């Protein structure tokens, strides 16, 4: 297993590190992004926990290539804000359309150049989805009719077994969000694209744990561990 650090949007004010981890057996490429919104702390911490586990050898990538971007929107992260404009509305909406922000353009170009077959976008949201369906906290989101939906259902089922309180368990949402990284990955790159949302009202240690469990299960679904 090899881990190599690179720079996204190198030479610009948006420059941010990303990591390419290659398993010993060739396989699909899976992209994980976090920090699209700079104030979604647990997603970023979970991404760095994954990187640390890989570096220390407590987790080993067996097959394929993982592209990990722990903080996409570094300027928003430094300010502790969601980001202006909201970067998750600036990705290409259709094939042939360009991203409307230089950073989302660089992120999308990376995913395209790496021929991403999976695209996992880590986020956080308000409220518990099991308490009120209007809330997105504790959800895995995929596009309707997508081939990844069975995998999402299996992951939610497995992760929920480790969460004693039903109200804090994950739900599945099927929806589109034009302009998001997930929508662009699905509809332009034809990748299996999933958004992970933990709930802000839970303790940060719980949110990082839940994000980490979801990530590990998705890596298993992709046949990479």
Give a short synopsis of this structure.
The protein has 225 residues and is an alpha/beta fold. It contains six helices and eight strands; from the N terminus they run βββαβααββαβαβα. Pfam families: AstE_AspA_cat.
Strand content: 15-25%
Mean pLDDT: 97
Q: What form results from the Cα inertia axes?
A: globular
Distance between the termini: 11 Å
Please outline the helices and strands.
Blueprint: E1 2-8, E2 16-22, E3 25-33, H1 41-56, E4 63-69, H2 74-79, H3 102-113, E5 116-125, E6 139-142, H4 149-160, E7 171-174, H5 181-187, E8 192-199, H6 204-221
Parallel strand pairs: 3-4, 3-5, 5-8, 6-7
Antiparallel strand pairs: 1-2, 2-4, 6-8
Helix pairs in contact: 1-6, 4-6
Cofactor: Zn(2+)
Keywords: Hydrolase, Metal-binding, Zinc
Protein name: Deacylase
Task: Give an account of the 3D structure.
This protein has 225 residues and is α/β, with parallel strands linked by helices. It has a single domain (2-221), classed as Aminopeptidase (3-Layer(aba) Sandwich). Helix content is 32%, strand content 25%. The chain has helices at residues 41-56, 74-79, 102-113, 149-160, 181-187, 204-221; strands spanning 2-8, 16-22, 25-33, 63-69, 116-125, 139-142, 171-174, 192-199. An 8-stranded mixed β-sheet has the order 1-2-4-3-5-8-6-7, with helices on both faces. Strand 1 (2-8) and strand 2 (16-22) form a beta hairpin. Helix 1 packs across helix 6 and helix 4 packs across helix 6 (204-221). The longest helix is centred in the C-terminal third of the chain and has 18 residues, at 204-221. It is globular. It starts with a strand and ends with a helix. The model has no long low-confidence stretch (mean pLDDT 97). Keywords: Hydrolase, Metal-binding, Zinc. This is Deacylase. Its cofactor is Zn(2+). Residues 26-126 form the Succinylglutamate desuccinylase/Aspartoacylase catalytic domain. One of its GO terms (molecular function) is hydrolase activity, acting on ester bonds.
